[in-house]
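Could someone model pyridoxal-5'-phosphate with this protein?
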Amino acid sequence: MASGGGSGFGLSDLSRIAYGRGSYVYDESGKAYLDGSGGPAVFCLGHAHPEVNAAITRQLESIAYAYRYLFSSAALEQLTEMILRLCGAGFRDVIYTADGSESVESALKVGLQFYAARGQMKKRHFIARQRSWHGNTLGALSMSGFAARRHAFEGSLLDVTFVSAANAYRPPAGCAPEALAAHLAQELEQAIVAAGPERVAGFIFEPVVGAAGGVVPAPQGYAAAVQAVCRRHDVLLIADEVMCGAGRTGTWRALEHDGVVPDLMCVAKGLAGGYIPLGATVVGEAVAATILDQDGAYMTGHTFSGHTAACAAGLAVQRIIERDGLLARVRTTGAAFKASLRESLARFTEVGDVRGRGFFVGVELVADPRTRAPFPVGRGLSYDIGQRAFNDGLICYPCSGNVDGSAGDTIILAPPYNATDGELEEIIVKLTRAVEAALKAGPRA
Ligand SMILES: Cc1ncc(COP(=O)(O)O)c(C=O)c1O
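Reply:
Sure, complex below.
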C-alpha cells in the first residue's frame, strides 16, 4: 500500500503486482485493486493505456535514449513545446529530470545560478513552509517541513527559514479565515526582512500541499500576496507542483487557478503518468534570459535528463489528456466527487475536513471535531484506514504528521483523470467502509 509518512509495511507484507488495466491493478493472486490515489498521485491515465504503451514501444524500437549533449529528438522537442504551451505565457525553458526531488533540486540550483549570473552571490538562502514536502535529496529535504522524514538527516541539511503553512482548517492562532492570506504574506515579508533580503534567493511552496498536509489548497489571494512580497524584495517564487500540477487540480498548472506565474516551477508525477519516470523544472522568462545571456546554459542536469523514451511517454500522456478534454472532466467531475465524498463521510464526527480541488482530494480525521485535536500518533489511524481499504480492493494514500510533523491523520484520493463515474463511486463506497471499520475498531491493543 502507498505510505505517505514512511511507516508503511515490511516488504514481506506486500502483495506482488501482476498487471494493471485502466483504473485497476491486479496482484498475482488475481485480486483487483481500484487505484484511487494513483499510488502517490501519479497515474493520471490509469494503467496500461494502449496508446501510451504504443508510443513508448515505437520510441524503443527506434532508440531508447540519446544523450542530450549529442542529440535532440522529436519526442523531447515536441514535449517541450507542449509543456510551454500548456504552462501559458511567462515561461521559456524546460529542464528535464527523472523525478520530483530532482525537479526541486534543479529549481533551487537554477535560482542560485540566476543570482550568481547577476553578481549577487550573497543571495543563497531559501524560505519554505512548515508542513510541506519537496523531496528526498538533501537540498529538497532541507526545504521540507516534515519532521518525521527530516529527523535522521538533521545537522546536514541546509539552513532554511520556515514560515507557517497556508491552511484554512489549521490557521495560526487568532487569525480569522478572511485575514489568513494577508497574515501569511506579512509573515513571509517579516521572514525575508529578518534574514536580510540581500541574502534570500527564493521562497518555495506547494500551491496545493500534498502528502505533508493531506491536500491543502492555499486560501484565496494567498499566491498573489506572496508573489507581491517576493517581487518587493527581489526573491524568486518557486512553485512545487510535483504533486498538484500537470492537471491534477483541473488546470494544467495548479497556480493558474490563482492567476499567478511563478519564476520557477517543478512538475513530475503526472507528467508521464507513471509510465516512465519523468520530471521537469520549468524556467520563467526573466530567469532564463539572465542565465542564458550570462552563462549560455543551465548548470544542472544528469545523465538521463531528457531520456528519449520518457519524453515519448510524457508526450503521449499529455496528448491524450488534451485530446480527450480530461482537464475539463477533472474540473467538473472533481467538484461533484468531493461533494459526494463529503456527504458519504458526514455521519462520522471524526471526519474534520474534506477538501481539495479537481481530482486531488484530502480527508482529515480528528479526535475532537471542536478543538480539531488529532488522534494519538500511536494509533496510526490513517494507516489503519489505508490498510482496510487496501484489503477491500481500494488503493488510497494515507498520510500522517499534518498537524505537528508527527500527529495528524489524512487520506489522499487522486484518481486517474479518465476514471469513470462508477469507479469514482466505488472509491467513495470503499473509503467510507474503511473509515467506518477503523473508527469502530478503536485503538490497537
Ligand atoms: C510536492 C512534492 N515535491 C516533491 C516531491 C518529490 O518527488 P519524488 O518522490 O518524485 O522525488 C514530492 C513527492 O511526493 C511531492 O509531493
